[in-house]
Amino acid sequence: MKLTILGGGGFRVPLVYGALLQDHAEGRVTGVVLHDLDAGRLSAVTRVLAEQAAGVPDAPEVSATTDLDEALRGADFVFSAIRVGGLEGRANDERVALAEGVLGQETVGAGGIAYGLRTVPVAVDIAQRVARLAPDAWVINFTNPAGLVTEAMSHHLGDRVIGICDSPVGLGRRIARVLGVKNPGEAWIDYVGLNHLGWVRGLRVAGRDELPRLLADPDLLGSFEEGKLFGTDWLRSLGAIPNEYLHYYYFNREAVRAYQQAEKTRGAFLHEQQARFYAEMKNPHAPALTVWDRTRAEREATYMAENRETAGAGERDEDDLSGGYEKVALALMRAIARDERTTLILNVRNRSTLSVLDTDAVIEVPCLVDANGAHPVTVDPLPDHATGLVCAVKAVEREVLAAARSGSRATAVKAFALHPLVDSVNVARRLVEGYTEVHPGLAYLR
88 φ, ψ to 5°? Predict the structure, then answer.
């Protein structure tokens, strides 16, 4: 099978290739094509992959290209992991928003909207090319904002595009671990919402829901990441465990203040960190895999550091530093390619899963996966407070999609103004002005 990775010069690509190297079953990926607009980044990542593959028999052959059409032709699977505007763009998203006193995170609030506005047109072009050049390919979307981008691509690819995120998987794994579940894979995670906006409402093992036991034990509840981040009293009030990104909603003032007071934003930190990595990789004698692994460890350890500092949550647990999105992607690909039926939490079209949303709205829920794709399972309705957030944010996503289609500046302002974390129409107007000034990719807004 041929796997094409868009954004193939991206820093996290070795995670995917490393997972592929551990897959020795029949019907595995035999060729990986890396596509990126930056030939230097492609060269750096290709070196890391070569060192990963050293001594591994039958390692998937790796090639690299800056030609998108060439990369897509004949692909069986396409992993889309692009970052329009690069990390400099992410840093600008954060800076412009924080100057207005609102959140600039890359998937939540003003920053997520700005990122979506410049990413959707590119993602739509990719979807149209896939439909033309590789109509039988399955697209697995990593690109943030994952739910929004997946929905944009689904208008051209239907159910053959599926969005993934490792946050729900990591959350379920942590809950299972503190509950003493020996094999987290045997637990059914009742999770529902949008990407980076969901809640675990139950965790069933052998038909028994173990979540009430966790919520009833303050010591147990406060022993893992989300308990430390949100506080046990708030989790017990909710009767559920939120995705970590909901900290930006529930503790918005504190999060914004922490980011404003930080020495540098997350985007600025990653921009500088990865610039050092790619610069070091220009040295042909640098140990590529060692340099990459050291940089990755620092990246993972500092994830959501400001939020944890605000909550007094301390350092991340060592068990949470291993990532996981590549494992979700490979599990999804194997299930489809080999008809190895499994259950995964994915971003897919709603159909009739959540009655408050229309059939084409992309949501994040458990899905049964087989050779025919991902099928969302029936879930109980969300409580009113969660329904309100989901509907409000989905409405914003729809305005982003409309602005990207029409190029309407007024519609872009509307998208910002309607978001729960943007508290003024005037702020929304200034955000659009600020973002169009720093992002050439938003020049289409008129």
Answer: -65, -40
